[in-house]
Amino acid sequence: MELLCLGLNHRTAPVEVRERFAVGTASLGKAANDLVLLAEATEGVVISTCNRTEFYLAAVNAQAAFERIETRLAEKIQVDSSVSAHFYRKEKIDAAMHLCRVVSGLDSMMLGETEIFGQVKYAYGAALDAGATGAVLNKIFQRAFSVGKKVRTETSIQEGSTSVGNVAVDLAEKIFGHLKNSEVMILGAGEMSRITAQSLVSRGARSIFVANRSFDRAEELAKEMGGSAVRYDEWQRVLERVDVVISSTGSPHAIVHRADVEKARRARKYRPLFFIDIAVPRDIDPGVGEIEEVYLYDIDTLEQLAEEARARRLLQIEECERIILHELEKLNLPGM
Amino acid sequence: MGMDRWFLIAATLLAFIGAVWGMISVHQGHRSRLTMFWMVAAFIFQLGFLYARGQMRAACPLVGTGEILAFLAWSLTLFYLLVGPAYQISLLGVFTAPVVVLFQLFALVPGKLVENPPRVIGGNPWHETHSAMSVLAYGALALAAVAGVMFLVLDKQLKDQHLKSGLFRNLPPVRELLISLERLLWLGGGLLTIGIIAGFLMPRTTQAIGHLVAAVAVWVSYVLLVGLKAVRGLTGRRLSLSAVALFILSLVVFAFV
User: Which pTM value belongs to this model?
Assistant: First the structure.
């Protein structure tokens, strides 16, 4: 019995191709059974996320199974044969290594991300419940999950935030601890503000105030985030109560000056205040960061911190690969 | 050498191991969970020391610099063990352990702890209450100073945007540090108030009056600090610097008065 994997991901296929092969989470079990029938294999698991769709199979003859599944899938989904150029094909130990890399987040768009672990586990569970797996795939998937855990605990592949939004949220938590007692003000209803504020809300931020030159847009964003809109000329009043300010207006000059913050200090009782300036040109006068209780981070600093975390993760790849190889050597799978 | 000293030496060694262990863990970017274990062990031996000295004195062992410093180290450890887990401030131990080691090393300096100390004759309960409450208060105020140092380190790292060190990753959030610092100041201030009231009720010698005046001055300073924070507000940096400065200043004052 041979292990094989046929798949496409964000590196090999554009979204318009990936979406044709996407399988909803509710249908993963049925898809695994269909896959077994299509490929005339004995076992099958279908993994489908926004960045990849992969078919894992245990079959008597890998090459024959590849041909059958590619031809029949193209017919079923009604795509021409050129789609096969987007697929990668892996067999035996290569397929097992690939699965371990996927589970460990090494093959993800955001290196080291943890969500994929749960997604693969869910896909395997669906196939298992549907009766589409057997001795080969059960063994290899169980091993992949234990390798994934080992990689995460023994390396720092998931340490540090790799996006500007997450770096800002991590810093907010370093200043305020649990964000459930923190209030956030957004200056300028741009996309970056929305993403960063959403990250803060997802970690429990208590309330959001949105101030924007266009009050309608402020109301729209506030409604979307479950917050309150504030008239643009009233943001200084709100500054007295909030803990975090995210600024991303399109203003050609600074809109938050040291004097504005100095005015609010007494009313704030000198509590810590975190400014996230993600605008270019900057919205917040650098002098604001010189105020004792103010922590000011601009887009360059946040981007640099995210880049450093990405670089640290890249340095961990070799160690992760070593763990995967070492763990797979312990296996004695048929056909390997 | 008496059993009391062996207890204090063991407590010092255990706190030292806790400090070194914690520093290595933090340097490697891990949480220093075992520091708590070493500090619990040190606390047990501190209790052994205080029990042995208490038996010899037939009173609370707070006579002379050595006993006061050892009692202070015990009080600091006690508050760390109470506050650390409650606020999930595991790193507090890494900062507390060296201070405990320092106090106990001073106590162990030859001449600071009297061999076979005489029994306290004609002891006064107000005097003992004054001594015990004051030293307990200093334990809480010492821990407030430790939390202040932790805040100052974290504040500097956040301001300078040096966020890669293991120390930064392990330090508790700014707000949690400031909350625990303020509560420790209130607790220390409360205990000091009881100590001072007891001081006014105890029989006074000429030497004790100078000591009491110094104690009142320290108490007033702490009351002003917590009052200012509660009423007007204070930046974390000023609160921390004041907590550290006041603690050091009061230790210096009592070394001479």
Answer: 0.77
